[in-house]
Specification:
Structural Genomics Hypothetical 15.5 Kd Protein In mrcA-pckA Intergenic Region, Chain A, 9 strands, about 45% helix, two-stranded antiparallel sheet, alpha+beta, single chain, five-stranded antiparallel beta sheet
Length: about 170
């Protein structure tokens, strides 16, 4: 039994050494170790949800991922999933909760969280001149996205029921 456990220990040590050697070979670039993404040649790219969080556009990474799932983020005109990779130079379109669209260009990618002052250097907001018609359309769209919560919960009172019946008669 002692021999078996020793053999197992040797095997695990050997396999661990083998993996560390491989990772060093992949990461070693002229004596400087770089963080390399698992995708291979996309070392200069990053997941969109992670980048949105690092750039201080969303408070948490999970909120950034949720925004991607809600189809509020577009990368180069295509709706982005949370695992979509972005690079410097990509065009981003973000729909804010108020319905306004913000176009921005990615200037840099950071592997670590940075302060909000430094995060502003990661992207550039592109302001597009809008015509009067476009502004009116944006206002209409923003109003359509608003959700009004009903004032009452559960069963309506007699007063609320009469008010609802009155509004139904007006519509007919």
């Amino acid at each position: 039994m002692v021999q078996r456990s020793a053999a197992r220990g040797d095997r695990t040590r050997q396999s661990a050494d083998r993996y560390t050697r491989k990772s060093q070979e992949i990461c070693d670039c002229g004596g400087v170790l770089k963080e390399v993404d698992q995708i291979g040649d996309r070392a200069d790219s990053q997941r969109i949800d992670k980048w949105l969080h690092i750039a201080c556009l969303f408070k948490t990474r999970s909120k950034a991922a949720k925004a991607c799932e809600e189809r509020r983020i577009k990368v180069n005109g295509v709706v982005a999933r949370p695992a979509t990779h972005v690079q410097g130079g990509d065009e981003l379109t973000v729909r804010r909760p108020n319905g306004h669209f913000v176009n921005m260009k990615i200037l840099a990618i950071s592997q670590r969280n940075v302060s909000s002052k430094e995060a502003k250097f990661l992207y550039e907001v592109e302001d597009l001149p809008l015509s009067e018609e476009a502004k009116e359309l944006m206002e209409l769209f923003s109003e359509s996205f608003k959700y009004e919560k009903p004032k009452y919960k559960g069963r309506p009172t007699k007063k609320e029921r009469r008010k609802m019946e009155k509004s139904r008669l007006i519509v007919k």
